[in-house]
Amino acid sequence: MCHFITLIIHKNFVSELTEVMKDYRRLxxxxxxxxxxxxxxxxEQQFLLSGKHCDxxxxxxxxxxxxxxxxxxxxxxxxxxKGWSQSKLDRWxxxxxxxxxxxxxxxxxxxxxxxxxxxxRLLNIEGINNVGILxxxxxxxxxxxxxxxxxxxxxxxxxxEVLADFPSDSVVTFIRNNPP
Length: 180
What we know:
By secondary structure, this protein is an alpha+beta fold.
């Protein structure tokens, strides 16, 4: 059905989360998915960030949707018929794969820089020591769907590399480098 991204922070910081997400035109709403609740720490709450809209096309799902050379087989056949040499075809394919698999900052509903900024801004708020993000492809209700959820924790110093290869079905928690 659809990808949805939820954010996990301590429930005492709802107003701060609301303010940060307003800058990205995202509305927050509390959800209580039992599968996710199993991996939350005391006081943490899960928040849906997209209102009634899904997050299909998110850059966070990019690592699961890479383009392969098979996706260009018709183009390659057509170019061969036009008389292109094998080396020219190889260069063309290499360029297309590189371009198609590049994470762009503005073509989808979000960008890696947006998520990086959200996490960093939240972690810069006094009292917030960790921020979790969950990406899941829901086939039912975000509140009721049952699925296996893992929890992975990373220092914020690894934020960019984790966002670029984001895992599904894991609460990916970023912690401050030096929590107070």
